[in-house]
Design goal:
It is a single chain. The protein is mainly alpha-helical. The protein has one domain. Helix 3 packs antiparallel against helix 4. The longest helix has 30 residues.
Length: about 150
Amino acid sequence: MRQNAATAYAIYSAGDGFLFRMIFTIYSIFVVLTLGFTPFQLVLLGTILEGTYLLCEVPTGVVADTVSRRLSVVIGLVGSGLAFALLGVAHSFLVAAISQVLWGVFASFQSGADVAWLTDEPVFRIKSELPRDEDQAVRPGGFHHI
């Protein structure tokens, strides 16, 4: 796995990006057409999601930093999938709100842990070389060295 960290991250990023956009498009249509939520309910769902995400960001970041970043990413992916599955069987605002709370919690597990996991791989530990001459960074054309 360590030798293929870049490939694994590229696959993860592409898959996560594609699936998230697909699910979010379906989610938007589902809550409006199937569940028939009002604009106020839609705003409330978004507020519940973002509030949960904000509150869980630090605790889940601590878990990722102290336990395992890879595990944090896996928990985030699986949990977000389960939250969307719960939304798919929702027939009331309460169940949809619970799915948004779950999505906020599990999405915060993923947030930052994926990039931190990649940067922890030995392949990506690169020492940056700063200009040796302090004036070189401020001369015209000198910024390409930073």
